Amino acid sequence: MVPDLVFVGVVTGARGLKGELRVKTFTAEPDALFDYGPLLSEDGSKTYKGKILGQAKGQLLVRLDGVGNRDQADAVKGLKLFVPRDALPTPDEDEFYYDDLIGLQAELVDGTPFGTIHWVLDAGAGVSLEIQTADGTVLVPFTKAAVPVVSVTEGKVVIDPPDGLLEPPPPEAAQDKN
How confident is residue 1, by pLDDT bands cut at 50, 70 and 90? Predict the structure, then answer.
């Protein structure tokens, strides 16, 4: 049986000729990537041990066992890295693992169904929730003001969208794309 896994990082590319990898981490402290034991593949079938060599441009530089040259490093680009949930500490109140948010139902403050959280984006300037709605995808800043209620146990979040977030773009913006 596959253990309950939490997504903690992704290999974004190779660095150099000796198999070093660039890894974007989703741990609270980037240097904690290997603190929870060996990393696992998405299906839990492969184990990855390694070490952190340093940091560059907001990502870790990592050496994974078995990746010893540029070709091998290029072959694992895009590899998602996981750890068993039970290896992680229980989050404090008002803290959440991103994996716990994916799939939660989103509703507006008045109770109107809004959509489903499809992904959590952390681009460095702040975290956003990618919510799939009946009309498409909406990015909502994951702040206390925009998302005042998160209840993993109830399977929902409440969205109080910032002014203009749900407004269609002005007609001149549509014309500028042509």
Answer: very low
Fold exhibited by the domain 98-159: SH3 type barrels. (2.30.30)
Q: Do domains 5-86 and 98-159 have the same CATH topology?
A: no
Domain boundaries, the chain: 5-86, 98-159
Buried b (16+ CB within 10 A) or exposed e, 115-145: bbbbebeeeeeeebbbbeeeeeebebebeee
CA 146 – CA 162 distance, rounded (Å): 6
Mean pLDDT value across residues 109-129? 88
CA distances from 173 to 83, 130, 139, 176 (A): 44, 22, 18, 5
In whole angstroms, what is the distance from residue 55 CA to residue 88 CA? 23
21 backbone dihedrals φ, ψ, rounded to 5°: -120, 150
Task: Tell me how many degrees the CA angle 118-123-129 measures, rounded to the nearest 5.
Answer: 25
Token pair belonging to 112: 């109107």
Q: What is the pLDDT of residues 59-70, one digit of tens each?
A: 999 999 999 999
Q: What is the CATH number that goes with domain 5-86?
A: 2.40.30.60
Q: 120-130, pLDDT tens digit by residue?
A: 987 767 889 99
